[in-house]
Specification:
- The chain is mostly helical and about 325 residues long.
- The chain has 2 domains: about 160 residues, no CATH class; about 150 residues, no CATH class.
- Helices cover about 65% and strands about 0% of the residues.
- It has 16 helices and no strands.
- Helix 1 packs parallel to helix 3, helix 4 packs parallel to helix 6 and helix 9 runs antiparallel to helix 10.
Length: about 325
């Protein structure tokens, strides 16, 4: 038996096997998910599957009893589900705006996720997926200062270019969490400097600039907000994102098969959507937007589209803007 995927599942991917396993998991059938995780897969594909299956199964897996088990994939699946449930319970508001009950639920679920993922990592020392998922715990409920960097180092020691781990590290370095604009932008620039054309990590560049724009445009003070509003359209920002955009679009067939390819193109499209809102699109911007939308699949990611309201509506707006180029 299978069911529709719930709204908290990120859908920016194409993987028929994952689709079937996730739909089965929604109604409590865990076997296809475990069978899928037991298969050999490239690290980013395995990581994507762990993330999506956790989101899909969070409502049926958070009470899964694994106390007596040391099966890595079962622990990993549980940890991912607890992670997803924790962030869904917390909501999207800043910490100071989040109610006590939500915070308490978030911390409880994050603690349980940390336990399951730590055990999964110990049971499968070479696997980067538990470390990548642990980065969500280190972001929202760190046990000590600097934990995010330590966990990220654990990921990189196993898979140097795992995309989701870099996205989470970027978040941790953002001003809204534990860093600053400068730290976050420096991280993005260093990480993309030597990447081959077509690597999805090139999307760190527009992701970082989106974070700067949203943080500053919501900051206290009308004058400061007004000065920040045109940030995505500034010449130096456009130039940096355009260079990364062109490098991503120079991908060959192998790069386009990457598990995070669709998501990367959606991040670039979201950046150009924000440019359209605050500064207007130039012809070259529309051309790049059209290229990314053409590679972005049919289903929107929750992040970063959700920053701009309903993620479905924001994605459809980008597609309409791109259609103007054809």
């Amino acid at each position: 038996m299978q069911a529709d995927l719930p709204p908290h599942v990120d859908l920016a991917w194409r993987d028929p096997d994952l689709e079937r396993a996730a739909r089965a998991l929604v109604v409590g059938d865990i076997a296809p998910a475990l069978a899928l995780l037991a298969r050999e897969a490239p690290p980013d594909l395995r990581d994507l599957r762990v993330e999506v299956l956790g989101q899909a199964g969070q409502e049926v897996l958070v009470d899964l009893d694994v106390a007596a088990e040391d099966e890595p994939d079962r622990l990993l699946l549980l940890g991912s589900a607890l992670n997803a449930a924790a962030w869904w319970a917390r909501g999207a508001l800043y910490a100071g705006q989040t109610g006590d009950a939500r915070v308490e639920r978030f911390l409880d679920l994050s603690g349980r996720a940390r336990d399951a993922l730590t055990r999964a990592a110990a049971a499968a020392p070479a696997d980067a997926a538990p470390w990548s998922a642990l980065m969500s715990c280190a972001l929202g409920a760190p046990e000590r200062e600097g934990e995010g960097g330590e966990v990220f180092a654990g990921v990189v020691a196993r898979v140097p270019d795992l995309v989701s781990a870099h996205e989470r590290r970027l978040q941790g370095l953002a001003a809204k969490w534990y860093g600053s604009h400068e730290q976050m932008l420096d991280f993005a620039r260093v990480r993309v400097a030597d990447l081959p054309n077509g690597h999805p990590l090139l999307a760190l560049v527009p992701a970082a600039h989106i974070e700067v724009h949203l943080h500053d445009s919501s900051a206290p003070g009308a004058i400061r907000r007004w000065r920040a509003m045109d940030y995505p359209g500034r010449r130096v920002v456009r130039a940096e994102v355009a260079a990364a955009s062109d490098r991503l679009s120079a991908a060959g067939g192998a790069e386009r098969a990457h598990a995070r390819w669709i998501r990367a193109n959606q991040v670039f499209a979201a950046y150009y959507n924000s440019v359209a809102d605050v500064a207007g699109l130039r012809p070259e911007d529309v051309d790049r937007l059209a290229r990314h939308v053409a590679e972005a699949g049919e289903r929107p990611a929750r992040w970063p589209w959700g920053y701009f309201g309903d993620h479905h509506a924001a994605f459809e707006k980008a597609r309409r803007l791109a259609a103007g180029a054809r």
